[in-house]
Design brief:
- By secondary structure, the chain is mainly alpha-helical.
- The protein has one domain.
- It is built from three helices and no strands.
- Helix 1 packs across helix 2.
- It is globular and about 25 Å long.
- The mean pLDDT is 93.
């Protein structure tokens, strides 16, 4: 459970630091759909 929380926080922080979904997906090596889902869950 802690792993999932840490992963979601990392995704959120990366999105805030980059200010862009496109850049965040490149940095995190994920597509936009999972990124959007994580943000929706938060």
């Amino acid at each position: 459970m802690d792993f999932l929380i840490n992963k979601k926080l990392k995704i959120f922080i990366t999105l805030m630091e980059t200010g862009s979904f496109s850049i965040a997906t490149s940095v995190l090596y994920i597509t936009r759909t999972p990124l959007s889902r994580v943000i929706s869950d938060l």
